[in-house]
Design goal:
Blueprint: H1 2-15, H2 17-45, E1 57-64, E2 69-71, H3 76-85, E3 89-96, E4 102-106, E5 111-114, E6 118-120, H4 124-127, E7 131-135, E8 146-150, H5 151-158, E9 167-170, E10 173-182, E11 194-197, H6 200-210, E12 221-226, H7 232-248, H8 251-257, H9 261-267, E13 272-277, H10 281-284, H11 295-322, H12 324-336, H13 341-378, H14 387-413, H15 417-420, H16 432-465, E14 475-479, H17 487-497, E15 503-507, E16 519-524, E17 527-536, H18 540-543, E18 548-551, E19 565-569, H19 570-576, H20 580-583, E20 587-590, E21 597-603, E22 618-622, H21 627-630, E23 635-640, H22 645-660, E24 667-670, H23 671-713, H24 716-724, H25 729-763, H26 775-799, H27 804-808
Parallel strand pairs: 6-11, 8-10, 17-22, 19-21
Antiparallel strand pairs: 1-2, 1-12, 1-13, 3-6, 3-12, 4-5, 4-9, 7-10, 8-11, 9-10, 14-23, 14-24, 15-23, 16-17, 16-20, 18-21, 19-22, 20-21
Helix pairs in contact: 1-13, 2-11, 2-13, 2-14, 2-23, 3-7, 11-14, 11-16, 11-23, 13-14, 16-23, 16-25, 16-26, 23-26, 25-26
Length: 811
């Protein structure tokens, strides 16, 4: 029986070769897209899976309601107090930003500039138990002069020798090697070349011992280890109620300051805490732990790949049901000789399975061919070495077999033998509603892709052409080594760099586009705004062509400008609820100082980090204003002559490596190029959506062509009769295409509210976005009608050329 079914299947595939090709083509593309997106999803979800304690480790974040902002940093005071107060929290580890790179030297004379170190608290190896090669983790980080090395770095510095107990220097500080570890092979955001105790955390520890409070120094990322089976929601609630409220805002303090708890939470926050399990942090954390995957985009792309599969399955169903008249006599004969309905359903399911399984294997080949380009596009190193990719795609293939095979199978098996054996089945309306409904769904999906593609293109174009508020042409940012961050170094290098041919100007600005920075609360009366620090040199604003809206810039003419004056940006005064005139009359109390600062100017907003997010509140001041800033200047900006950029960079590099910082690499980047990287994510979204759009329209139009061909072939006798009665070719073509045009119009109208909802949700992610345009919806209507007419009318016109004698000789 099975052999007979296979013979019949291959005969039908050959007879309807166009439909077979379209089904195979659509399903292969759909499964290929599904596997590629699933590969991306699995790769992002695989981070930290190597860690045996991943289910007990949680990333701690805090939410500020006033700014609607989730901070991925935490204070040492908050984390330490939460660990001490809450029995569910067993331990914690904190990651600092100091001492994560530097020139490393051994006593034997070997030296190497090393990046990707970790500056942490003592419990690091309790959270990340890398495989130990030499030494012990017990006291590996018990003092500030101890260091642990990766086996790769140990090999580079000490060869095959055991380096435990040996000395080395890192940025001129002496260390003793206590352990050598092997990094895990799996994906991880924590893969340090070396590990040391954080020097910046030292002060926080000592302050806590002395009883000083430093709740607002959110300079670290924190992980906590929670006892198994703890209720995470309750732990989050307890951190807020038992730590923040009872310890940071105790009643005695509130009464002393004559403020309410609600006022303090509104002014300073935080208002909520989140705990995200380590192995889920990359995808699901509110704010990223050492980086965050674009989970929303991955889910969107995954959903779109499933839509393409559904579209391909729809083609399959439509074409199979449209071929019903060709299989009607076969079904009638089989039923007449005793075949059951179940046997017929199994036969047609086997036929569907053959196509789907063949498409599955073709998609595996296509994925292997496309994977190198896909890896390059995403800057990843994914491989088809995960059994879940094969199993999930096989399950999806099975579902497609059921979805696309069962409906036509049931439809065909329900034919009545008495009708089919009379030979008049082709004239019946059996299955018309099914075909029309499925075709409508197919065109709704196509319309959604057209509308979405146009809106995404418009949004990306808007961001690309938006006035960024600064000019970073020919500007490079040069980063210092960490051994000397004094302002004296900056001022010396500034003088020397200006002497180099091709250097037009030099400045420093903490709020330079694309660079990171620090922030703190800025208080005025009973109101507080969290603002980015903008420590800068006098010429910073002019250097980047940034505009003043009102007031004046800082100037060396005024001694107060290095003591207690600030500028603020437009966002800052909006958040304070001031007018420009109000701002220039007021003074601020910054969280990093005890004195009042007078506002002397307002800076026009500019994009600070990227084109998506809102411009944060920024407070600008001269770097000499506070000791903290003037002794933590780790980069500078240099403007180059546009006529000799490469030559000037080469001269600066030579100066840097021979005179400025001998032995250290020349670490620099172009401001405009770095900022352009923030566009890449959205340009890639645009590219992927365009590719998906082309695939969807290709699959849909090929399916429409095949379906219209089958349906029009069934009406060739009607066409012959109409031509005999004198109907024109134009009227026959319009009559044959009218139904398809009506279905297309209905599909677009249904897709409009669906497209509006999803695209509006997508646009909400952008602080600077286009207003929802109306023309994509109209354009989708016009495009889909024109494409439908073009595809169907080709076959309709060919139908008007029928041989009348052939179709009327039996009438």
């Amino acid at each position: 029986m099975l052999r007979n079914w296979l013979k019949i299947a291959f005969i039908n595939y050959k007879k309807n070769w166009l439909s077979t090709f379209i089904n195979l083509f659509g399903l292969t593309l759909g499964l290929t897209g599904f596997m590629l997106i699933l590969l991306h999803w699995n790769d992002e979800a695989s981070y930290e899976q190597w860690n045996p304690q991943k289910k007990d480790i949680y990333f701690l974040q805090q939410y500020y309601k006033t700014e609607d902002w989730t901070n991925n940093n935490m204070s040492y005071q908050m984390t330490k107090t939460a660990t001490d107060e809450l029995p569910e929290i067993e331990d914690f580890v904190m990651f600092a930003y100091d001492n994560t790179e530097g020139l490393m030297k051994t006593n034997s004379g070997k030296s190497q500039y090393v990046k990707d170190g970790e500056s942490v608290s003592e419990s690091f190896f309790n959270f990340f138990p890398f495989k130990l090669k030499f030494g012990s983790y017990k006291d590996a980080l018990s003092d500030y002069n101890k260091i642990a090395l990766s086996d790769k770095l140990s090999q580079q510095l000490f060869g095959d020798d055991n380096p435990v107990g040996k000395e080395l220097t890192l940025s001129d500080a002496k260390y003793i090697v206590t352990a050598v570890y092997t990094l895990p092979e799996g994906n991880s955001v924590v893969k340090p070349n070396y590990v040391v105790l954080s020097q910046t955390m030292k002060d926080d520890r000592e302050n806590i011992k002395k009883g000083y409070q430093n709740w607002g120094n959110n300079s670290y990322q924190a992980l906590v280890k929670i006892k198994p089976n703890s209720n995470i929601a309750n732990v989050e609630k307890d951190i807020f109620e038992k730590v923040l409220i009872k310890k940071r805002y105790p009643k005695e303090q509130l009464q002393k300051e004559n403020v309410t708890l609600e006022e303090m939470l509104t002014k300073y926050g935080p208002n909520e805490f989140y705990l995200t399990r380590l192995d889920k942090a990359r995808l699901e954390a509110k704010s990223g732990f050492k980086g965050k995957a674009d989970y929303k985009t991955i889910k969107i792309l995954f959903g779109l790949s499933v839509l393409i599969l559904i579209l391909s399955a729809i083609n399959f169903i439509n074409l199979k049901t449209a071929q019903g008249s060709q299989r009607a006599k076969e079904v009638g004969v089989k039923k007449a000789i005793g075949s059951t309905k179940t046997q017929l359903i199994f036969q047609f399911l086997v036929e569907a399975m053959l196509i789907c399984v063949f498409a599955y294997f073709l998609s595996l080949v296509l994925v292997e061919l496309l994977l190198p380009s896909y890896n390059k596009f995403l800057d990843k190193e994914m491989a088809m070495n995960d059994w879940t990719i094969y199993s999930y795609s096989a399950i999806m293939t099975f579902l497609v077999v059921l979805f696309s095979g069962l409906i036509p199978a049931i439809y065909l098996s329900n034919f009545k033998p008495i009708n089919t054996l009379k030979g008049n089945f082709s004239r019946s309306s059996h299955g018309v509603w099914l075909r029309n409904g499925i075709l409508t769904l197919q065109l709704i999906i196509s319309s959604f892709f057209i509308i979405g593609g146009i809106i995404i293109h418009q949004q990306v174009k808007y961001m690309m052409n938006k006035d960024l508020g600064f000019n970073g042409n020919q500007v490079i940012t040069i980063y210092y080594s960490t051994k000397d961050l004094s302002y004296k170094k900056y001022e010396r290098l500034k003088t020397e760099l200006k002497k180099i041919n091709g250097v037009e100007d030099v400045t420093f600005g903490e709020a330079t586009p694309t660079t990171g920075g620090s922030s703190s609360n800025m208080d005025w009366r009973n109101k507080s705004v969290t603002a980015q620090h903008g420590a800068m040199d006098y010429n910073f604003l002019d250097f980047f062509d940034m505009k003043l809206v009102k007031g004046r810039n800082i100037s060396p003419k005024y001694s107060s400008d290095t003591i207690n004056t600030v500028l603020v940006n437009e966002t800052f005064i909006k958040q304070m609820g001031w007018t420009a005139d109000d701002a220039l009359k007021n003074e601020l109390k910054p969280g990093f100082d005890d004195k009042q600062y007078k506002i002397i100017g307002i800076v026009k907003d500019y994009n600070l980090w990227n084109v998506k997010g809102e411009t944060p509140a920024v407070v600008f001041f001269h770097y000499f204003v506070t000791e903290w800033k003037r002794n933590n200047m780790y980069f500078m900006e240099v403007k180059l002559n546009k006529n000799d950029i490469d030559g000037t960079v080469s001269r600066i590099k030579n100066f840097w490596e021979t005179k400025a910082e001998p032995g250290y690499p020349f670490n620099y980047s172009f401001v405009n190029k770095e900022f352009a990287k923030t566009f890449e994510k959205y340009q890639k979204q645009q590219t992927l959506f365009t590719i998906l759009n082309i695939i969807v329209l290709t699959v849909a139009l090929l399916g429409l062509f095949a379906l219209s061909s089958l349906l029009i072939e069934q009406k060739l006798k009607d066409v012959a009769i109409k031509k005999t009665l004198g109907a024109s070719e134009k009227s026959i073509v319009l009559d044959l295409t009218k139904k398809f045009l009506i279905i297309s119009a209905i599909a677009v109208l249904i897709s409009i509210p669906i497209s509006y909802y999803f695209m509006n949700e997508w646009l909400k992610d952008f602080a600077y976005r286009i207003e929802m345009p109306w023309f994509p919806y109209v354009l989708s209507f016009v495009i889909l009608l024109l494409l439908t007419f073009a595809v169907v009318s080709i076959k309709a016109y060919r139908a008007t050329q029928v041989n009348l004698v052939k179709y009327l000789k039996y009438e």
